[in-house]
Each structure stands twice: as structure tokens, then as C-alpha cells.
Design goal:
Blueprint lengths: L7 E5 L5 E5 L1 E6 L2 H10 L3 E5 L14 H13 L3 E6 L5 H6 L1 H11 L3 E4 L2 H10 L5 E3 L8 H9 L4 E3 L6 H11 L3 E7 L11 H6 L17 E4 L2 E2 L13 E3 L4 H6 L2 E6 L6 H20 L8 H10 L5 E2 L17 H7 L8 H12 L5 E9 L4 E8 L2 E9 L1 E2 L7 H8 L7 E10 L3 E2 L2 H20 L26 E6 L2 H8 L6 E5 L8 H14 L3 E5 L13 H10 L2 E4 L2 H9 L6 E3 L8 H9 L5 E2 L6 H6 L5 E7 L2 E5 L3 H4 L8 E6 L5 E7 L4 E5 L4 E2 L4 H6 L4 E5 L5 H12 L22
Helix pairs in contact: 1-2, 1-10, 2-4, 5-20, 6-19, 10-11, 10-13, 16-24, 17-18
Length: 749
């Protein structure tokens, strides 16, 4: 393992060359005020959202003019500023609004954008070629293959999935040389970022669109085979504690993390500044003396006082999951039941307000002022590598008392609320002249304004005169014969699909083949499926980590020769198949989001056979996008969350065997959970299936060529009955009970 000091380490670029970089402390800002506070607290860079397209839509995100000021403020103080454009964009937003939104910030000198959407990445790379792109944690990059894929697409930095271990991060760094950003403090999602539909399905507020209602922070009761699994006072089963990594900071740095990211754009500015200041302190301490690194108890207590959910965890860096990571108890609720008042540390917050919100931050400059009678006043100013000179009014012969150097200096050093303060000012005067104080003030103001403008000019960019890409014209939808595919997780569902003549192909979950005879069983099912006149696809897991398929390369290659393709759910699988030369045999599931035509184009250019229509688009939005090479899920229990956590383990009943459990919410809804121990993740499904049987005419109008049914725990009989209803479009033959139409009617904001 490469050992290096905190301050400097090596990053390998695409050409294999390595460059020295200093560790970056990246702080959150939910407002312009918050940005100023974390800069004063010691952040090297700040991430902030604008009025659109950010994953924290409810923060006090600055409007255009304030954002332009924020960019300049950061640069004047030697910091970088990254804009969050990390939501999924619809066609009309991508082609109609994104360019105008980004253009002024690009011209002003924005340092980077953080993106989730593949279409947004492609758009920015084309329209703003000099703007660095950071791949958001919402892309859920979990391994070297996905990291390399997104590097090749143009991302200069990758924000790792928060569930990765130190070893996994180190492996990605060693294999790709990627510039890595990782979260080190703050709230954790229960779900893999970008793999959550819980909020949108229950209330129409999409986490992928920055409007998460946080249903994971609510109480649930867990059941297995009718038996309650959790204690009644430990019902917050999906609510992780906040992460704090200050004690393992050296290990993160040794793993290859370049940028240390603090979460908290929705929290108070005092919180963001306080956390930033402590991490700044320990970064600096470790740089000076790595061997003596030790965290003081009072600093840990201050972090707890700032904000925490029943204590801290250290994230996933050293553990895969576990009850100790979860705030199942909810001390706040228990205090309320017992009428206990827990007060915030107001002394701490008041100190932070004075220190970082109210305090003035000014950069040191030097200057020379020349005042000689009968000649114009001349002021030279220097800030770092920037030099300016301004001339003022003519100095008059003094009639009474000439200006002394001390008096002039005292007046000129009154820089007020400007970004500058004099470290040294020489005043050269013959002490024979006089200049009104008003003229001195104007000379100082003109000089400082010119210095600021001259310094910031190096950040300014010119916009291309070429018109940005416009929304593509919708192609005429021709009569098409739709194909039907069925996704199965059980052998009896597969057998039912084999007997249905109208089914063209079957997607078989890799978890159907858990034994040692994996390849033999898959090949046998491929042959059986083909004999039935149907296509066979092997569905890869929702999450792929830790090189779990690296030992099966030869088997996957052999399957690739015989099967019609693979269904993939994440970037790691796409990169994995590409490395094996099999990307042309892959179907992208809904979790590889093709929210707009450019994201569709991006995925198609990787060689995908088809993409899947995102589950959060409504019927009208589906008709507005290119679906000529897509398939659409028309039935199934939608996965609401895909998590590294395990409900059974949280409840203390883990038997290390794949299985199901149920979560009941406060309204009595039951959500089935299924643990996939072979790949170590859990899926939480909706309480009712989505059925679009009654919407088939509208779906046909959208021109989607392939329709899919997803089966999870349906029996052979139920699977067969449902297939008959859908493929034969028997709308009136059977009225399904307890269904939802998902987002087909309502969509998401």
C-alpha cells in the first residue's frame, strides 16, 4: 500500500501520469451566508446549490446575483466553489433551461459542477467544455469498472458511494488513479444513493429530484413469519446515525481519498462552520505530526453538541452494516414521552455565530501611495500576483496644514467591508500638499475595485456563440409489434413464463443460482428457454461490489456466448461487461436512469441493447422522450429502496440466509423486504404492486417497443394469470385489487 502524508498525494490521470495534489476539505453551504461561514472556518472548497436542479431543493439556495457574488467571494479568498446540478432532468429542463441556468456561472468562473444525470454530463461536456464535472454519489459508483467508465465519459472527480469500505476505495484509487471524494461527516441515507423511490412513490416527492420527504426517519415494525422482530422502543429501523470519521481520518487519506466532504446543506450555518473548523484543525494537526494524531474529547463533544442522531457511527468504512450504525432508539422521542427537555448548546452556537457568521474576512494586500503637490495622486496595489495602479485628483498646494503621511495612512487603511485589508502601506509625500478626504476615499475605492476586478478576471470565461442543442423533434410513431419480457426471481415463475406463448423473453435473477453449479444451471436454463422459443437474459444484482463477480469472469463470458444478454442495474455492471466485451449484450434496468434523450443517447453509446423507462416519469413525459430503444415495466412490486443494511440484522435475527421480512408503517401498510445475502444487500418493495393494465392504450401511443412484467414472490398460478391478463390486454376480465399506477398519472416535481 502506498503510504503518503496527508498534505500531498498522487493522482493518476488518464495518460498514466501522476500529479501532486493537496488534500481538500469540502464543506456544505445551504445559503450565501453559509458559504461565507465555512470559508471563514477553513474550508478549501464549498459545494452549494442554485435555484434549480440541486438535490436540496428546500435549502436557502441563492438566486442568480447572489450566486455570482458567492463565486467571486470564494475566489477572492482562495477557495473553490462547486455547484450541485445533481438531480435527474426531464427533456424540457435539459434542453430548455439548463444552458441559461449554467451560462452566467460558467462565465463567472465556477470551478466545477456535481452531476448525477448522464444526459447532464453529456450536455455540460459539450456546451461548457472547460467546466470540470464531478460525478455525484447519486451515481452510486461502487467499484473500479464503474469508476473507469465515468472517467472515460468526462468526469474529473468521482464522489464514492457512501457504503464503500476503506479497502474498496483504495482498490478503486489503485486501479484507476481517480480523483476521489468521500463523505466524512453528517447524515447517511439508508438506501444507496440514487436507488431510492420511497419518498416519490409514497408522496410524490422524489429524492432524485431533490425533494426527499425522508420516510426512512419514521418508525416501523418488523415481522418475520408473523413474529415481531424489533422491540417496541426500537422502531426507527431505517434511520442511520450521523457519520463522524474524525477518529479515522488518517485511514481515509491513506485509502486514496483526496476530497473530504461534509454533509449538511440543510442544516444551520453555525453547524456547517463548526464541523468544518474541527476537521480543519485535525487535518492541520495530522499534517504537522502524523504519528501524534489524537482527537481530543472536548472536540468530539462539540461535534455531538452541533448535531447527532443518538450518537455517531464511522460510516461504512470499517463495517458493512449493523445495528450499531442505526438510531433505532430515537432518544428525542423517548425524552418527549418522559417529558424530558433536552436543550441545545446555545453557548456553542452563539460562539460560532460570532466567530464565523458575524466576523469579517479580509485578504492582506500591500500598497504604495504617492502624494506630491501639483501632481495627481497615484495608488499602487498588490494582491498575490495581481498589480494595479490608479490615479486620483491633483494634489493641491497646502494653504494651511499639509497632509502628513501618518494621517493619510490612517485614512487609507479604512477598507471597511471590502475583501481587502492593508498588510503594509507606504505613503510617499512631500508633505506640502493637500487632498480632501473625499478624494482619498474615492482613490482607495477605485483602487480596491480595480484590484478585485483584475484579480477575478483570470477566472472569467467566454461563452460560445454557438447555439446550444435544442430539443430533438419527436419521431412519428409507427405501428409496431410490441415484445413482452418477464423478469423472474423464482424457478416456478420462470416455468410459468415458458408456457406463455406471447412472452418473447425471460429475465432470470442471478440469485436463482446460489449453488456451486452456477454455470451448469444457468446454461441448462438457457437451453430450456431457447427450446421454448424465447430469449434468455441473466439479471445481475441491484448492487455489485467487492469484486464479487471477478472470480466468475470465465463463467460470465461463457454465459455471454449462449444467453441473449444480461440485465444490468448499475454502473459497475456496465463497466464490468464492457471490460469483458459484453456491453453490447446488456439491457439497462430503470436504475440506470435515462430521464432524458441525452441520457438515453449516453447509455446507447455504451452499447446497451435497450434502456428501461424511468419509473418516475408520467405518461406525458414518456411520450415526449425518445423511447424507440426502450422497454417499460407495466407490472410489479417496485423496489422502493436498495440498502447495504439488513432489517433482520438490525433486529438481531440475522441467520446469514437470504430471506424475506415485512415492515409495517404507522398507517398499517406492509412493505416486503428481501435480503440477498449472496451479494449482501436488501431490497424494500412497495406495499402494493404497480399495474398499468388499464393504461395500455396510452403506453402504445408512446411507442415503447418492449413491455415488461416483474415478478418477485408471485406463485406459478398467479404469475400465469397475470401474464394472460397483460399480454392479451384483458382489461375487463379481472379487476385487480390493491394496486397503484405508480407515477404514470402524477409523475414527480
Amino acid at each position: 500500500m502506498l503510504q503518503r502524508p496527508i498534505s500531498v498525494f498522487l493522482i493518476e490521470n488518464s495518460k498514466g501520469k501522476r500529479k501532486s495534489m493537496r488534500t481538500e476539505l469540502l464543506a456544505p453551504a445551504g445559503s450565501y451566508e453559509g458559504l461565507q461561514a465555512v470559508v471563514k472556518a477553513g474550508a478549501d472548497a464549498v459545494y452549494i446549490g442554485g435555484r434549480m436542479f440541486g438535490a436540496r431543493a428546500y435549502a436557502k439556495n441563492p438566486e442568480k446575483d447572489e450566486m455570482l457574488e458567492a463565486i467571486d467571494y470564494a475566489h477572492l479568498h482562495g477557495k473553490k466553489i462547486y455547484l450541485t446540478v445533481n438531480t435527474l432532468l426531464k427533456n424540457q429542463e435539459l434542453f430548455g433551461e439548463l444552458y441559461d441556468f449554467l451560462a452566467p456561472y460558467y462565465a463567472q468562473g465556477l470551478d466545477a459542477v456535481i452531476v448525477q444525470d448522464f444526459g447532464v454530463l453529456s450536455f455540460i461536456k459539450k456546451e461548457f467544455p472547460d467546466l470540470p464535472i464531478h460525478a455525484s454519489t447519486q451515481m452510486a459508483v461502487t467499484g473500479q469498472h464503474g469508476a473507469r467508465l465515468i472517467q472515460e465519459a468526462g468526469a474529473s472527480r468521482i464522489v464514492m458511494a457512501r457504503e464503500l469500505s476503506l479497502k474498496e476505495i483504495r482498490d478503486i484509487y489503485d486501479q484507476t488513479g481517480a480523483e476521489i471524494e468521500s463523505f466524512v461527516h453528517g447524515a447517511l441515507c439508508y438506501c444507496y444513493s440514487g436507488m431510492c423511490l420511497f419518498s416519490s412513490m409514497l408522496g410524490g416527492r422524489s429524492g432524485n429530484r431533490g425533494r426527499c420527504a425522508q420516510p426512512c426517519r419514521l418508525p416501523y415494525t418488523a415481522y418475520e413469519k408473523g413474529r415481531q422482530m424489533n422491540d417496541k422502543n426500537q422502531s426507527y429501523l431505517l434511520s442511520p446515525k450521523d457519520m463522524c470519521t474524525i477518529e479515522i481520518l488518517p485511514k481515509l487519506l491513506q485509502a486514496g481519498v483526496y476530497s473530504l466532504k461534509i454533509e449538511g446543506r440543510m442544516k444551520r450555518s453555525e453547524y456547517a462552520a463548526g464541523v468544518t473548523a474541527i476537521y480543519r484543525k485535525y487535518l492541520d494537526l495530522y499534517e504537522k505530526n502524523p504519528q501524534a494524531y489524537r482527537v481530543e474529547a472536548e472536540d468530539m463533544q462539540e461535534l455531538l453538541d452541533l448535531y447527532q442522531r443518538d450518537g455517531f457511527n464511522k460510516g461504512y468504512y470499517q463495517v458493512h452494516n449493523g445495528k450499531e450504525m442505526m438510531a433505532v432508539w430515537n432518544q428525542k422521542e423517548q425524552n418527549k414521552k418522559q417529558n424530558i427537555q433536552r436543550k441545545r448548546n446555545e453557548v456553542l452556537f452563539e460562539r460560532l455565530k460570532k466567530q464565523y457568521l458575524d466576523a469579517k474576512l479580509q485578504e492582506k494586500i500591500t500598497g504604495t501611495l504617492v502624494l506630491c503637490a501639483d501632481a495627481p495622486a497615484v495608488l499602487d496595489l498588490d494582491f498575490q500576483d495581481t498589480h494595479v495602479q490608479v490615479m486620483g485628483d491633483t494634489v493641491e498646494q497646502a494653504q494651511r496644514q499639509p497632509l502628513t503621511a501618518d494621517r493619510v495612512k490612517k485614512q487609507m487603511e479604512k477598507t471597511g467591508q471590502t475583501p481587502f485589508a492593508f498588510e503594509h502601506l507606504d505613503v510617499i509625500t512631500d508633505e506640502a500638499g493637500f487632498l480632501p478626504m473625499q478624494s482619498l476615499n474615492e482613490l482607495r475605492r477605485n483602487g480596491l475595485e480595480k484590484l478585485e476586478a483584475s484579480y477575478l478576471s483570470k477566472y472569467r470565461r467566454k461563452l460560445s456563440t454557438k447555439a446550444p442543442r435544442v430539443m430533438p423533434k419527436q419521431e412519428e410513431i409507427l405501428d409496431l409489434k410490441q415484445k413482452w419480457y418477464v423478469s423472474v426471481e423464482q424457478k416456478e415463475q420462470w416455468e410459468a413464463a415458458l408456457s406463455q406463448d406471447e412472452v418473447d423473453g425471460i429475465y432470470c435473477s442471478i440469485s436463482m443460482y446460489p449453488g456451486k453449479n452456477f454455470l451448469e444451471e444457468v446454461l441448462r436454463d438457457i437451453e430450456t428457454t431457447h427450446r421454448a422459443g424465447k430469449e434468455y437474459y441473466l439479471t445481475l444484482p441491484y448492487i455489485l461490489r467487492e469484486g464479487r463477480l471477478e472470480s466468475r469472469i470465465q463463467e460470465i463470458q461463457e454465459i455471454g456466448k449462449r444467453a441473449d444478454g444480461f440485465v444490468i442495474r448499475n454502473l459497475e455492471e456496465l463497466g464490468y461487461l464492457k471490460a469483458l466485451g459484453l456491453e453490447g449484450k446488456a439491457v439497462g434496468d430503470y436504475s440506470l436512469y435515462s430521464f432524458n434523450d441525452l441520457s438515453q443517447e449516453f447509455l446507447e453509446n455504451t452499447g446497451l441493447l435497450r434502456t428501461t423507462v424511468p419509473l418516475e416519469l408520467n405518461g406525458k413525459e414518456i411520450r415526449r422522450k425518445n423511447c424507440n430503444n426502450s422497454e417499460m415495466i407495466v407490472y410489479g412490486y417496485y423496489p422502493m429502496m436498495v440498502s447495504a443494511q439488513c432489517v433482520k440484522k438490525t433486529c438481531g435475527t440475522c441467520d446469514h440466509q437470504s430471506g424475506t421480512a415485512q415492515l409495517k408503517d404507522r398507517y398499517g401498510n406492509h412493505f416486503m423486504t428481501k435480503s440477498f445475502c449472496d451479494f449482501c444487500y436488501t431490497v424494500i418493495y412497495n406495499s402494493v404492486p404497480t399495474s398499468l393494465l388499464e393504461e395500455m392504450d396510452q403506453i402504445n401511443d408512446a411507442g415503447v417497443p418492449v413491455l415488461r412484467m416483474n415478478f418477485t414472490w408471485e406463485s406459478r398460478k398467479e404469475s400465469k394469470r397475470l401474464m394472460e391478463l397483460f399480454v392479451q390486454k384483458k382489461k375487463n376480465a379481472y379487476k385487480m385489487q390493491d394496486i397503484t399506477k405508480g407515477h404514470f398519472k402524477r409523475g414527480v416535481e
